[in-house]
Amino acid sequence: MELPTNSLLGKLGWQQNVFFVAARPEGPLTQEPKRRTKITISTLPFIKAQISLDSLLQNDSTFETDPMPNTKSYRYENLVELVKDVNRFQIKGTEWKFCLKDPTNPTSPWKAFGIVLEENVKWLKKANSKWLDFDWLSKQIRLINPPIDPTTGTIQLNYAWKEIVDKLDEITGDNLPQWVKKDTKWLYNDQESWPLIEEHENFRKLFSEGIWCDLVPIFGILTTGAHLNVYRITKEKGFQVWVSQRPDTQPNFPGLLDQAAAGGFTPSHKTILECIEKEKKQESKGYPRHWRELMRQSPDIPTIQFFDVRDERWEKGYAGLPEPGIRKAYDLRVNDEKIKGKEGQTFKLMGIDEIRESLLHGRWKPNSALVMIDFMIRHGLIENKIEKAEIPRLLKLDRERQFGFGIAVIELSDYVQFPLHGNK
């Protein structure tokens, strides 16, 4: 008996342990399914003779499990190998630091906020931006003389970011890296920014505008994000977790798996709850009405640290550039609520074995894979002794190591005084 490989199998419940994973629509329902797979009738626990496959397929979506097109295959022997792959940046000693200082204090030291590849320094120098100074002895690129808003006292960084992006685009010649020119890289909306993470609150207020997303990979700035693991536990099926699949229209990680709600923590977010709520509204619906109260009861889960290298899965133009990052995870336990996707996304049930298999086959957004693995370890869903012992050490926030460059790494929940509640 042949059945199309889509969410029909999820409807029939052929897996013992299950996760909900989002799927994108496959197109008109009259189209022939792209792939078919053989299963035996014994694979399914119960099928009534009068079941109509056509009716089951109607108004449903497929869940893509093939590797992304035009990319190399990401396969791993075990989860330790996966975690190490998301920490693959290797310091060579030729890198530069991107630095800022408090312009209101003449004795303020230069603080490192990013890791710049030696090749990038050459092109940034050619851009001839009035805001950048190059100290060859200390290997520092310094942002100099930024204007200060006389009303708020904050540094007006956006003037510098715009000029740097424009100056890079003016560079001419052959063999230009894609990130130099506007037409060969992905451009975000003008004011979309990442925060500049620093331990001292006064410094954070000074640079509260953050840095444009267009420049984050070029200067190797620490990326930040908050992820929400939505799960339930039943006697029959154990742990079940709601997970999403990113649309193919996404500029980065198209078609890969993700948490039910996950997104970048930006300078505009006053609390982590605000960050998660924004992503939740954009990506899914069906949460319990009192989900905020449940979130506030969530345990303080340690922030995850990683140091990746961007590749073809990221937005175009930035392959090969460093990405240090921290991610804050929260758990939300629900009951019978059915989380539904938005913007073309749907959700499907997957089992623990299936989720592990999808991790090992590189089906996850890299940093979201770390969050998923962390969830599985914390809830005792990983049996391998080596994985249980090694992975927490690899994911642990390391304030001493600080990526080898003195870049501040902090618990994201410490970045705001009241990470979930706000100032109430």
TrEMBL record:
Protein name according to UniProt: NUDIX domain-containing protein
Annotated source species: Colletotrichum noveboracense
Lineage: Eukaryota, Fungi, Dikarya, Ascomycota, Pezizomycotina
